[in-house]
Amino acid sequence: MRCPFCAHDDSQVKDSRPTEDSTSIRRRRQCSKCGARFTTFERVQLREVTVVKSGDRREAFDRSKLEQSISLACRKREVAQEQIDQLVSGIQRQVETAGEPEIPSQKIGELVMDGLRQLDSVAYIRFASVYRDFSEARDFEEFASTVQEAANGRP
């Protein structure tokens, strides 16, 4: 593993342990040249998945982009980082085990919406406001009222 401080190619693992949600391994490393210590995370990747975006653009599935968008929706909410990590890991697992080499970005967006709906209604509305790209305030109001009705137990 390359040292992030001096770019030397050799480092030693000093400690390894699973993360709290057991979806990755946290490793403490020490550079054999400069002696700096740093942490890396190792995750299982079942298969390479390509995301088909609008306009038929394609790019590799990127867990960090998914985590960033969910974290942004949950910003300043009482949602623990562990809950976000579990949601991201669950979505990643669904994407990788779907058996398809390509997945539309809309499908990933729907998986995020389903997860956020159960996690936090405000984060759900925040994500939906960007994902659904409401053209008018009325569209947003209608969507928010359906979320409120669902929270109150009405269909």
Keywords:
single chain, alpha+beta, 2 domains, three-stranded mixed beta sheet, ATP-binding
Q: How do the helices and strands follow one another from N- to C-terminus?
A: EEEEEHHEHHH
Please compute the radius of gyration using only Cα atoms.
19 Å
Report the structural category: alpha+beta
User: What can be said about the biggest beta sheet?
Assistant: 3 strands, antiparallel
* Mass-distribution shape: elongated
Strand content: 15-25%
The level of helicity is 40-55%
Task: List the domain count as a whole number.
Answer: 2
Strand order of the largest sheet: 1-2-3
The total count of helices amounts to 5
What does this protein look like?
This protein is of the alpha+beta class and 155 residues long. It folds into 2 domains: 11-43; 50-151. It contains 5 helices and 6 strands, in the order βββββααβααα. The chain has helices spanning 63-73, 81-97, 105-119, 121-131, 137-151, and strands at residues 11-18, 24-31, 37-43, 50-52, 58-60, 102-104. The strands form 2 sheets. The protein has a 3-stranded antiparallel sheet with strand order 1-2-3, with no helix packed on it. A 3-stranded mixed sheet has the order 5-4-6. A hairpin with a 5-residue loop joins strand 4 and strand 5 (58-60). It is elongated. The model has no long low-confidence stretch (mean pLDDT 88).
